[in-house]
Amino acid sequence: MTLRERLTRLRYNKVPDHLLGEILSKSWADNLVPFAFLVVVVAAFGILLPGFFAPSSLLDTTRQLGEFLIVVLGLTVVIIGGGIDLSVGSIFALGAFATLAVIYIAEGPVWLAFLAALGVGALFGALNGFLVGYLRLRAFLTTLVTLIIGRSIYDILITTWGARIQSSPVFNDTFDHIGMGAVWGQPISALIALAFALVAHMGMSRSRIGWHFTAVGGARRSAYNVGINVRRTIFLTYVISGAACGLAGFLFAARLSGVGPGTGLGLELAALTAAVVGGNSLGGGRGSIAKGLMGAIVVLLITNGLIRMGAGTGTSQLIVGLLLAAAIVLDVRWLKNRHKVLSEVYVAPLHHAMQPAQSALPGSGTAYALNDALASAEPIALGTVEGPEDVILDADDNLYAGTRHGEIVRWFAPDYTRSEVFAHIGGFPLGLAMARDGQIVSCVGAMGLYGVAKDGEVRELSTETRRSLFSVVDDARLRDPNDCDIGPDGRIWFTDSTTRYDAHDWALDSIESRPTGRLLVHDPKTGRTRTVLKNLRYANGVCLSHDGQSLLIAESWACSVHRYWIAGPKEGQLETVIRDMPGYPDNINRASDGTYWMAWLGMRTPSFDLALRHPAMRKRMTRNLPQDDWLFPNINTGGVVKFDETGAIVATLGDLGGAAHPMVTSMREHKGWLYIGGILNNRIGRIRLPGADPDWTSWNSYWGDRA
Question: Which helix (H) or strand (E) is 415 found in, with range?
Answer without folding.
Answer: none
